[in-house]
Design a protein that fits this description.
Blueprint lengths: L1 H14 L3 E8 L5 E8 L6 H18 L6 E6 L10 H6 L4 E6 L9 E10 L2 E6 L2 E6 L3 E6 L4
Parallel strand pairs: 2-3
Antiparallel strand pairs: 1-2, 4-5, 4-8, 5-6, 6-7
């Protein structure tokens, strides 16, 4: 369902001048929440979220991709923004990140916190405690920036 929503909404969001970062589904049947995270080079404010929300709501009403009732939320990705696309991992090389994998590595590890070094082939390189780890992109369940405060 998430891929279907991304396919439906990404062209719309891009036509409005924003980047669709991620679509998250939460909740259960009959009370789902659809969270749409957007970004822009100049940042995101409440007016941006309202503009995208109106347009996305209209498309969702026409296409009806979610059975039953749902709540739509549109927001910025925040300081701990998710890294979803290959381009995100390339863009934020040098930043501190946390990531969790679907399946454990050969060492049995599923969680990593360290310096994102970049992308090589189909793997994200992350340095943890001075040791470089290569994590396949398709094995990353969630990756987020670690906010610098």
């Amino acid at each position: 369902m998430q891929d279907k929503l991304i396919t439906l909404l990404e062209p719309l969001v891009e036509d409005l001048g924003y980047e669709l970062i991620w679509v998250q589904l939460a909740g259960g049947e009959g009370s789902q929440i659809v969270r749409v995270f957007i970004d822009h080079a100049d940042g995101i404010d409440v007016d941006d979220c309202a503009k995208v929300s109106r347009e996305v709501s209209g498309v969702m009403d026409v296409e009806d991709p979610i059975p039953g009732n749902y709540t739509l939320e549109v927001s910025s990705p925040g300081l701990d923004r998710p890294l979803v696309k290959r381009a995100h991992f390339e863009q934020f090389a040098g930043a501190q990140v946390k990531l969790r994998t679907y399946a454990p590595s050969l060492e049995g590890r599923r969680r990593y916190t360290g310096m994102l070094k970049g992308v090589a082939g189909d793997e994200v390189e992350i340095e943890v405690d001075g040791e470089l780890h290569a994590v396949p992109l398709d094995n990353i369940e969630i990756a987020r920036l670690v906010p610098e405060v």
